[in-house]
Predict the 3D structure of the following.
Amino acid sequence: MTTLREMLKAASRTFALGIERLPGVLSDAVMVAYLLLRVSDYLEDNEKMTAEQKVALLKLWDQVLAGEADVRQLTSQVNCDADTDNPDALVAQHAEDVLNRLRSLPPEVQEPIVSNVRESTLGMARWVARGPKVGDEADMDDYMHEVAGRVGYLLTQLFAWYSLTIRLHKDALMPLAREFGLALQTVNVIRGLREDYDRGWIFVPESFCAAVNISRDQLFQPEHRAAAMKVLDMLADKAERHLRAALAYLKALPLWQHNIRLFCMFPLMFAVRTLAISRRNHQVLDSEAKITREEVKQIVRDSTLWGWSNLWLDHYYRQLSAVGD
């Protein structure tokens, strides 16, 4: 039988790197939260379902999380259509196992996980029903808040449960937690521009394109490449603003909570590097921008050795940002 840790690594090796660094119950809690959100993501992103089917299953998943429906009502439908090559499909098929692990966690840990995953799931359902129309930056931020900003809230609540120091500073951290989520998601949008377009979604605000006199569909046409690069600059500048706030969040975490800091540090520095190679790179409009496995390993090594220092974090952020210029 596939274990939850195996499913975690299959769904995201990069997030698994950080989750494995977290101590004890906190590691289990974050793993469970991540896997529950992968079920939501699978339902939202499923290319074989109609929008109506996605909305119905996302709402059913919300009822399951609330204890108002049997999880087998969901998994019986997922098993019929699941893509065996898709790690998220595997997680969805084993949703009952994930829920069983959730119930083994302390009640004060279960509550923020369930409430935030439910809110995110319903937010996804709202956006699926709305359709792929992102009018302006506020629309983009609204979507990203549902799929990533709420994750920042969830993680901060779990960190605060574990650490008294973080608990005392939670109110100040929460706005930055949302920014952290938006930072990672904005970089994801940039990295996946072409893939999203090919599946019928463009998360670039129409207002960004209108500012350079093109439509969102023209963003990917070679004859409009110069204008499209200006739009890419707008997205990169937006990502940079969010990433700066994410760095402030990371630096606000206690120095002695090195493993919690590493959990946050890895995806932040991966995103900083990804943004660096994406800036002014026209290939982003044709294919996905990804950092190499060796770069991932180097960031993990460097962060593990030096990430306890906020001065080093500032230096490393600038170093990774400069790469690709």
Notes: The chain is about 75% helix and 0% strand.
